[in-house]
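input
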Amino acid sequence: MNRSLFLLNKLLILTLLISSCASKRSSKDSILKYSVEMKLDDKSGSFDVKRESGTAKNGKSIVSKYKVTSNESNKTLEQSIVFSTPGYLKKKIRLLRPDKSQYKVWFDSKLYQSETFVDAANRELVVKLKSPEKQWQGTKKFKFPGGNGVFCYFSQVVDCVYFTGFIEKAIKAKAGKMKFHVIWDGYPFIAEQYLNINDEPFASAFMEYDGRTREGEDRFSMNISGSVVFFLFSEKYKYAKMLWPAQGFSLYHK
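output
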């Protein structure tokens, strides 16, 4: 497989960043509904991104989609869809409970696909893989990490954290830290491309209020698998920008 590092770098950033667009809402009780078009620039070029989120057909789940395309050929490079259900942790903390996901990426015009399903009764994540390579075919099951807590699909991570009320509270208090677990909806392809990411679908993470910038933006840092990603919010909790110093990426609205 042609493991194009720049492509999966985009996945890692995009799933984090574009989901944060939903943080425009001023209340954690708001339904996550938006449709945005964005641009991603990096050393390899510019790419178009479309992100959508809203209520699923069943009227209960929140479905989030994104698609990355080449702005030269308009060819789809990768796409993802995840489903989560609003709920509560210990009847107190509002959260988005992961249900299922589907991730697709094309390498040399060949499709690599990962689907996940949460088996809540057995506390397992079921992963189904389809690809041209034998090592990434078939079904695997993984036990959830022990204990209770917040779990977020990677491509919904900022929406998921915001939904708990943490972002608003931390900005008002100018302090705060939240621990949670991430489910890599792009597993196992993420682990094949990045150092310090374990070859498993779960990762421990935390998000922390990191002060205000000179421009008056509130900054949060997310630590995950040895990486630090900064998210900046302007007035009324609007997502402003993302910075990943180690990778030199920028994502912004068209």
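quick obs: The longest helix spans residues 5-17.
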